[in-house]
Design brief:
Layout (H helix, E strand, L loop, with lengths): L2 H4 L16 H20 L1 H23 L24
């Protein structure tokens, strides 16, 4: 037997299923869709009255959820500290 036959590798971790592809996520999306249809058919006036508030609420929600894609390390200015200036001196 060779060395490769005796080595045991740990199984690779499986990727997590996105929340919207789980049964709970699908049920939540279905409930949200039904609520949107109900509100758009029977409570249009209430939705239109709340629209300015909903737009304002989107600002902090977008800030919370959309800043997850880039790291917040190195808040030291515009990032030019590591590059030399135009004359070639650091």
């Amino acid at each position: 037997m060779t060395h490769h036959e005796h080595t045991h590798h740990a199984p690779e971790p499986q990727a997590r299923t996105p929340w919207y592809r789980t049964w709970t996520g699908l049920a939540g999306l279905g409930a949200a869709a039904l609520a949107a249809v109900y509100l758009s058919l029977f409570h249009v006036d209430h939705v239109l009255d709340a629209l300015p508030l909903l737009v304002l609420l989107l600002c902090p929600l977008m800030h919370l959820f959309m800043h997850g894609g880039h790291g917040h390390g190195g808040h030291g200015g515009n990032g030019d500290a590591d590059r030399p200036n135009k004359r070639g001196t650091p």
